[in-house]
Amino acid sequence: MERPLRLVTANPLDQLARTLEALLVVASAPLPVEELTAAADDDRERVELALGLLAERYHEGRSGIVLESVAGGWAFRASRDAAEACGRLFERPVQRGLSQAALETVAIVAYLGPCTRPEIARIRGVAADSAVAGLVERGLITEAGREDGAAGGAVKYKTTPMFERVFGLESLSQLPRLDDLPGEVDDLRERLHAVAEQRSA
Amino acid sequence: MIVRELDLDLDAFEGPFDLLLTLVLKEEVDLADVDVAGIVVRFLERLAEREALDLDACGEFLVLVAALLELKARGLFEDESAELSELEPEEAAEELARRLAEYRRMKEAAGWLAERLSSERDRFFRVGPAPFAPQPERRLAPQDPESLANVVRLLAAEPPAVSLAHMELRFPPVAQFLERFRALLARRSVFDFDAELEGLSRAEQAIAFLALLDLRRSDEIRISQAAPFAPIRVSKVGQESAAVNERTPAWNVRSA
């Protein structure tokens, strides 16, 4: 009797791993473990173990395809050695020409979001309308309800999974803590206070 | 040089200066997007093209641009100026320092993101629209063909005839009665109007009366009535007695 060719050593999780592989190939966005579990119709713990197996198999340097945990889910991407070839075939329009204004705006939305355009303008000191529109168009931020939940309130924005993916973040918690970022303006503060004292005197 | 006609080519606007001003005042162009420096540069270029210094144009331009700048500044710091002006100088200084620190941190965060973007430049992944989720199966309650047939039967039933009773009031043409009365008067010189109306509807009676008035107006008949509500007697002109004629000289359509 003919027996099927066995390419991979037998593992109780093998069938599940193959299913997950298939799901990840057809997905166009990172799949959270819950979604994979539901689609594979299996046990969550087993799915996580199988994902570990796959991550090992599709590791940077081992395969042209790399499995990564990004934007709150799992997704395949091209290996970094293939980047040049990929670049000849495609470009990444999302990140092309992201201006300083756009980067500052997306940083504010990532840290303080959901937040409104007036809030962004308040921090940056200039109108944020075109920067916000550009980021929405690129799919890096999206609308997240309105201020006070009212129909007339200003639209609030938050970052999208695409933002995390483009910047290679597993989640927003991977951003450096705001308190850790240098924001000291001691010299300026002293000068401002000196002016204030003069004025009150 | 006419300042109002200064042609501009900015990111947010292209066209003459006075149109820009109009659009800004109508709030159809957001002043925050308008590069005021670009306007100044354009004006200076135009100014340089001319040999003599156009002081009138310079003055007008200065006033307009100053107004534009003031509007823009107010637009950008509307709330803040109000808030800050209520603070003591020390508090205002602290508030400004706090905001500067906040902005500086965001600038640093933007710098971190820019570095991250450049280090992740070689990560290529598939971007596409989300595939369609499978359509959930629509569960229908068990259906009885007989009840469907009943509903269709209801729909197919002839609707009740709409009553046209309110539309039955018909008005025969006045001409019909004119003909009738003229024919009558050809045979008889005098007739009793009430008797002629025997069996007619109210509407027809009214039309008949109009015909009567019409005949009177064209001076074909004379009309007489012995007393209010007494029968109306109609006689052909020239046939009536002189006495009747004299008693009703004022009775004609115009007086009616």
Explain the overall architecture.
The complex is a heterodimer of chains A (201) and B (256). Chain A is built from nine helices and five strands. Chain A has helices at residues 14-26, 33-40, 44-57, 83-89, 100-112, 117-124, 129-138, 161-166, 186-200, and strands at residues 65-70, 73-78, 115-116, 141-146, 155-159. In chain A, 28% of the residues are buried. The longest helix of chain A has 15 residues, at 186-200. By secondary structure, chain B is mainly alpha-helical. Chain B is built from nine helices and five strands, in the order ββααααααβααββα. In chain B, the strands form two sheets. In chain B, strands 3-5-4 form a three-stranded antiparallel beta sheet. In chain B, strands 1-2 form a two-stranded antiparallel ribbon. In chain B, α2 (36-48) packs antiparallel against α3 and α6 packs across α8 (202-217). The chains are: A alpha+beta (201), B mainly alpha (256). The interface between A and B is large, with 59 and 46 residues.
Please outline what is shown here.
With 201 residues, chain A is an alpha+beta fold. Chain A has helices spanning 14-26, 33-40, 44-57, 83-89, 100-112, 117-124, 129-138, 161-166, 186-200, and strands at 65-70, 73-78, 115-116, 141-146, 155-159.
**Count of helical regions of chain B:** 9
How far is the N terminus from the C terminus of chain A? 102 Å
Average pLDDT over all residues of chain A: 85
Low-confidence stretches of chain B: 242-256
Gyration radius of chain B (Cα, Å) is 48 Å
Topology as H/E string of chain B? EEHHHHHHEHHEEH
- The topology string of helices and strands of chain A comes to HHHEEHHEHHEEHH
Distance between the termini of chain B: 79 Å
Strand order within the widest beta sheet of chain B: 3-5-4
The rough form of chain B would be described as: elongated
Question: Would you identify the regions of chain A where 5 or more consecutive residues have pLDDT less than 50?
Answer: none
What is the count of helical runs of chain A?
9
Helix content of chain B: 40-55%
SS elements, strand count of chain B: 5
Shape designation of chain A:
elongated
Strand content of chain B: 5-15%
What radius of gyration of chain A results from the CA coordinates?
23 Å
In total, the number of strands of chain A is 5
